[in-house]
Amino acid sequence: MPRSEVKTELPPSLPNNWPNPSAEDLDERPLRKITINGDQRFSFITNFITTSKYTKYTFLPKFLAQSFHPRKKMANVYFFIISCMQCIPIITNTHGIPTVLMPLSFVIIVDGIFAALEDLARHKADAHANASKTKKYDKQQGAFVTVDWASIGVGDFVKISNREVIPADVVILAVKEKTQIPEGRAYVETKSLDGETNLKMRRALKCTLNQIKEDSDVVKCGHGEVEMEHPNKLIDSFKGTFTLSGAEKEVIDPNNVLLRGCTLRNVDWAITVVVNTGLDTKIMMSNTESPVKASSLEQRINVEIKRIVFYLAAVCFLGAIGSFTWKNKHMLNAWYLKWTDADADDSEDILSDYNATGEFLLSAIVQFFYYFLLMANFVPVSLYVSMSTVKFFQAKFIEDDIQIYHAETDTPTKVRTMALNEELGQISHVFSDKTGTLTCNIMDFRKCTVNGISYGKGITEIGKAGYQLQGDAIPDDILAGEEMSREHAEMHKQPHVNFYDQAIRFDLVGAKTEEQATALQDFFTVLALCHSVIPEHDEETGEVHLSASSPDDEALVCGAKFFGFDFIDRKQGNATLKLSTGEEKTYKILEMIEFNSDRKRMSVVVKKDDCIELYCKGADTVMIPRLKGNQEKLLADTCGHMTDYAKEGLRTLMICKRTLDPDWFERWHSNFKEASTNLAEIEKRLMGKRNKIDLLAEDLETELRLLGASAIEDKLQDGVPGCIADLAKAGIKIWVLTGDKVETAINIAVACRLLHSEEFMQQVIITAEDEGKDFKKEKLKEKLIENIREFEKDVKEAGSIDLVKPRALVIDGPALILAMDPDIQPYLLRFTQCCKAVVGCRVSPDQKRQMVNMVKTKIDGVKTLAIGDGANDVAMIQAAHVGIGISGQEGMQAVNASDYAIAQFKFLRRLLLVHGRWNYRRMSRLVCYIFYKNIVMAIVQFWYAFQTGFSGQKFYFEGGIQLYNIAYTCFPIMLLGVFDQDVEEKIILMYPQLYNNGIRDAFFNSKVFFNWILAGTIESMIISIFPLYALDNTSKPQEQGGDGLLPSLWMFGATSFTLVVLVTNFKLLMNQYTFPWFSIVVWLLSVGSWFLSAWGMTSILFVDFDGFKVYEELMKNHSYWLCCLVVCVALGGRDFYYKGYQRAFHPQLHHILQEIDKFNLENLDNLQIPLPPAPHMYMKDRLKDLPEHIEESENVELLQIVRRATRTASDLFLPKGLGHAYEHSDLQTVIEERNIVLGRSAIKTSKKRMSQIMFGGKAGGAQYNERPTPGKVTNKKSFGEGLDFWDDDDEEDDEEEDDEKLAAEEESGLSLVGSFLTGLFVSNLKEATEKSKEEEGRTASKSGASNRSQSTDEGDSWRFSMGF
């Protein structure tokens, strides 16, 4: 963004080389100096802002530079080079006219329109901001006058009224309050800055507070100077001093500053002085652009474009070689080149001295570039504009989806980076914050412990999960207490309180002991006073509304109110409590030391009567070392209760107090004030260095008397457990990273269905506290290696990773510091690959970022997603491939840094599984098809070169070439990219396993792309050759009444081009599933536009001289229409029958679900689908201590051979062989299966054993969340229940290639393709199933039947169902 300096001859206020000054530059000008009531000594930028990218003068050069960036827009650069080459006479095939510029210009213009519209919105916002009004002091008039924001300068006095937006960064000099004694308090709403809706208190400078009472007092302040830090984007930091003539220097801290964009509240006006303007304000400096992210599909496209160019070069090289060979073979012996000079005496051949080889070689080089131009459309010119348009509409559908709209807060889903739409369908790892993301971040006061006695009945949902984890039943009295607590909360309707325990009411009035009553009163007094909550008084209703920066503080204040300690006002340095008796008590606030992430505690010093007391609350880890002695019993009881609370997922704080000696406090307070106003100490504190401010706070917060602890509930959001379970079924690994204790994090993970009990999941817990003081890197490394070896041993013994008890890693922040060491990190990473879930406890924001980067950069093939709601999640969100912000209680910083914004975590399920999967599949199909159709169109002319001596003769109409990507094939594929749905959303949500193809890159990879290119190459050969024979000699000789004319090359070309348009558009239909009416209309218009435009272009002489009247004659030729019919049926029939074959004999999961849903075979609710295998994701840095893969035994290799031999009719409904026996079973199982398939029944098998064989080997239909115990067989009451549709052996590359090959094949809609085979398969399947049930019934009714006969009967029924 450009900086608008004031046009003066004064030196600039900023150091040289700003914004990246050197140390010498900063030494030369270390501070920003502003003169008050005087002329400025330095120049400052104006308050005029410009956030737009372009102006009317810079738009064209800047936009063109971006459009032809060689890394970002490679295709545009390619076509620009092609257009330049078309102007070279020796190689041009367009008479020197750069015809490619027409479609390229269209693409650039469309992109330019989007860019201009986007930037126009910025211009409007800038104009509105610059023209906003405020009041500036005019020295000549001696009053404040209304001016535009853009007119404000540094050092100006500005008067801001109540509810007015602040125009620049200003320091408060005075405010008009409603109290008689001025305190200089103002309140500011920072919603536009950080998204927080609570009010924050600011104060005027003490040296000017009493001097300015009205407007005219401004000039009476005298001259002064502000020395401050240079502009930065730290919104919670401000360092500076304010000096008036004749007065002491006063420190300016963040509480004295109002920032641009915030709103003044609760005062009539505030008189301020401007210190930062325009782009130097903190909000403008914070508006840095997020990291530019590109989807993996876009990155893959750039790779494939390079390969396509190499392919084009290879084709051109073959054409050049063919030209050289043909000329060398034919032209030297051509009779018409054997010219002689008749006047010469010896009549020599004039070519005797001609260097034919050299000339032909030079001609071949020229021919190479000629072919390059002829087939330049290998790379589609419409690729980027088509993708951008489709993504735009995809984003609109996401934003308009009512099912991911939160009605309570009126918050729709917001797409901030539409370039990542398809990336949502490929996520392999989700990194989630807890507070506000998995939970509501709306706190309720739930329980407390005071003086060693715990109060509060009932149990949270997370507590119930804890009982479930241990396998214990919840006691009835606890369940009854929870019911009473819920009813009690509904009856009293106290906000942020969900508490029931009658004992505390009696103990408050001394029913137990006076000591307990005093402890309770002190406890709730601390809760009511030790906070930063601001009460807002509604003058109309008289009600008091609490505005808190922390939801914990608000819940604690509401809890104190619930028990009769109501905080009602804070003014003139006093806090007032209203007791349940109606009495009001006023406490003098002497000092407040606020909470921060380093201190993890908050303290306030109050004076009541003559007694001075310190009230303190904080985390147990920092409070326990500060307790005075002789409290061991109380501390043990309190810690025990806090542990119980943590198991219920409750957030705990220790509550303490200390009585202070007045003289000691007076000395301490004087020292603390001096240190707090010392710029050097402030600087040290901001940099995390040892400083006097923190040391003095440490002196104060010692010898504390423990009162008890509070417990606050942060409830899980609705739908979180189900969402996480479905994401796990989809094959996504989920990591929860939180700052909570280990016990709290584990129980929350259990409640979210992320962790399971030891019976179903082995939890590996690594914490520095549990490991002891001797916990070092070597010990951590040994523990990781031990767990890795144990897991691999279990996998080797079981034969499949699916039969091994899944692992989960729980690690805390201190242990993670050691684990992130370069020597340990590979082992941590390797073990996390063995785990189904990872939970990080007590991790910092930077550790969250490190963990995301570790997975993102160290493992190939992963796609990471980070989701959070607070400022501490921004680093993690920006580091991930896809960042999602939740519009919650912690502001908008996470949303502003994100790529997508949602209101609830549960919306992630639909965003990924439905929109993500659809968009990934659509974009994959769109990209492949766009390249395919261009290959078909371009390479046809290469095949024609075999008929023309490789002369490179063009036989397309130039107008057709230019309109091909714009009119004939553009719009149908764009509609597919926006609307196509291979599976309905209800089925996708019912079977999340469908998502796994995206994780495996099944829809777009090099193999898929090559299949499309190969298909286009083969089809283009048929399109080129067939018309040459179909149209040849179709005209009658003159003696038979015909014209005797043979078809021209332009007729061949027009026929081939017609076939290109028809075949590519029919190909699109073959790969489309949904057909809305407008899609059919657009398809017909696109195809019809070729016939109409071809007739129009060839009917006007000056439009196409070579093809004049050609198409008119061609349309009269019956062979032309027959040729179109035959080629379309032949090429379309190949796709038609292959897809039918694939559905019948090698169906994928979505094929089966489509058929079951369409033909209502069974109730979909009863179909059980196991978890598909994880994709191959290998660490980039191999471990030397451990084998990378488990070696397979000879038996496994034998099982694979036998399994492949059994691929017969069982593949009707199991694409990889019946039961995947080689993976799930032993050799005997495979032999039994093979005998069943081949109709043999010599081996004795029980009915239970047969069921295991038919429904997935030993374990049956194992699922991630419903894993059967060994020997337990899944009930096969409906078709497909318990069947395994995937090969779970990740170590078999050839099997995964089969999966990718099947996924790569073109699919078709049920309404067009495979109707006959599908119908036959469905009818046979129904009949076989019914007969199987009848056979089972007859077998069961026969008394005394042997197990052998039952087995044989069942084998016969299944043998019949498979067609034997």
Please give the structural blueprint.
Layout: H1 23-28, E1 32-36, H2 59-67, H3 74-85, H4 101-131, E2 133-138, E3 143-148, E4 157-161, E5 169-175, E6 185-189, H5 191-194, E7 199-203, H6 206-209, E8 224-228, E9 240-244, E10 250-252, E11 257-258, E12 263-265, E13 269-276, H7 282-286, H8 296-331, H9 356-374, H10 383-399, E14 414-415, E15 429-432, E16 439-450, E17 453-455, H11 461-470, H12 476-492, H13 502-508, H14 514-529, E18 534-537, E19 544-547, H15 551-562, E20 565-571, E21 574-579, E22 584-593, E23 601-608, E24 611-618, H16 620-623, H17 632-647, E25 650-660, H18 662-676, H19 679-686, H20 692-700, E26 705-716, H21 720-729, E27 733-737, H22 742-751, E28 762-766, H23 768-771, H24 777-798, E29 807-812, H25 813-819, H26 825-834, E30 835-841, H27 845-858, E31 864-868, H28 874-879, E32 882-886, H29 893-896, E33 900-902, H30 907-945, H31 958-968, H32 970-979, H33 985-990, H34 996-999, H35 1006-1030, H36 1049-1070, H37 1077-1097, H38 1110-1114, H39 1118-1145, H40 1149-1159, H41 1194-1205, H42 1221-1224, H43 1227-1238, H44 1247-1254, H45 1293-1304, H46 1315-1341, H47 1347-1361
Parallel strand pairs: 15-27, 15-31, 27-30, 28-29, 29-30, 31-32, 32-33
Antiparallel strand pairs: 1-8, 2-3, 2-4, 4-13, 5-11, 5-13, 6-7, 6-12, 8-9, 9-10, 14-33, 16-17, 16-26, 18-19, 20-21, 21-22, 22-23, 23-24, 24-25, 25-26
Helix pairs in contact: 2-4, 8-9, 8-30, 10-30, 10-32, 11-22, 14-15, 17-22, 18-20, 21-30, 24-26, 30-32, 30-35, 30-36, 31-37, 32-37, 35-36, 35-39, 35-45, 36-37, 36-39, 39-46, 41-43, 46-47
